[in-house]
Amino acid sequence: MIYLIVFFISSFLIYLYEKNKTKRMLLIVGLLLPCILAGLRDISIGTDVSWYVKKIFDASVFSNNFRDYFDTIILNNPAEGLLYRVSSHEFGFVMVEYLTQRIFNNFQLLLFILEGLIIIPVYFAVKKFDSIRNEKKIWLSMLLYYLLLYNAGLNAIRQFISISFLFYGVSCFINNSEKKYQNIIVSFIVAVLFHKSSWMGIIYYVGYCFLTKQFKLVFSNNRKISSSMLLLILILTGGLMFLYIPGLNGLILSFFNIGYRYSSYIKGTFGISGGFVFCIPIIFIFFINKKNFKKKARKNYLFYIYCYILYMLCIQLSTGATLNASRLSWNFQIFNIVSLPCLFNNLINSKFESKNISNTILICMCLFYWFYKIVYRGYYDTYPYKFFFQI
Asked: I need a surface site. Which of 52, 164, 175, 246 has the fewest CB within 10 A?
């Protein structure tokens, strides 16, 4: 399968670069491979490609200038006769489409560039985590990204560009990198320019501050509550109120002026989905294996659990709701690519290469996840892979 071949070759090249950082070409080729795979795909790979990416590109082809292009009306769904303007999409995305068409006039190159805007921020974000970089596990984090999220990114392109830049900004924040706040601001602006749901990024920063900069609310001598417990209570009560109090979710989305686009993401009922069941053993391991987190990774331990719990809760939105609801989970699932390698560090108490055994178990679990969702269930309309040209 071409997906798995590219995933493993890319990860192996990144692994070789980690072992010998003088050979930068290994890294360049490793990061280019998944972008090339995305660029060579047929228009049918990823529902959103034919739904709006190609149509916006074609609008640029037939427009005289940017103003005409921006105001172009497109027939979105011929069966329903739905119309929308190019300007209804985020400015950053339509600008990338416009410039690529004007400069290169090549749709496949556009798909390559868009994938680069996803993959490159993810790599540099992972690199910010000392626990991953020092253990030389960047290759493993990238492999997990490919298996868990790559195919979804071939479909929800705008959202994944946004998620990648938010992920980079958060990685700078929680790892105290140089020019931290400058990177946070720039990455957040870029994220907003590609998808309006980026306002969710505030959840990362608020959550991290609550969980790592501990304080206690004192009600009396015998009644105290920590910021971690307070945050958990707020998540549960706030989330349930947001979902089930009539009119509240619509009011909040209207406040951000995105209700007309994202109201379908939050409709549904609570239930136990297959994805939720898959998460149960992982969250159990999180709670009982804090010792597997080395000192530099332990400072983010609570934050990783926080993101994983939110990921699990978001999965429930797709139970009895539209499939769009599950898209919210990607915002938190991306942190799995740095938390799971830390969690599975020396998971098996073996004197013989315990790290390799743990890595193998983790990779096999993610492979199962990929086969189940992409091959068996056919999510995101990305399998089987098709080239844009005939072989």
From this structure: 246
Report yes or no: 161 and 114 within 8 Å, Cβ to Cβ: yes
Count the residues in the chain. 391
Say how far residue 383 (Cα) sits from the centre of its chain. Answer: 19
Give the DSSP H/E element, type plus range, for residue 218: strand 216-220
Cα-only R_g, the chain: 21
Measured distance CA(181)–CA(187) in Å, rounded: 10
Is residue 73 classed as helix, strand or coil in its secondary structure? strand
Check: CB of residue 48 under 8 Å from CB of residue 156. yes
DSSP string, 301-344: HHHHHHHHHHHHHHHGGGTTS-GGGGGGGHHHHTTHHHHHHHHT
Residue type, 340: L
Q: How far, in Å, CA of 185 to CA of 387, rounded?
A: 38
Which pLDDT tens digit goes with each residue over 33-83? 999 999 999 999 998 998 899 999 999 999 999 999 999 988 665 555 567
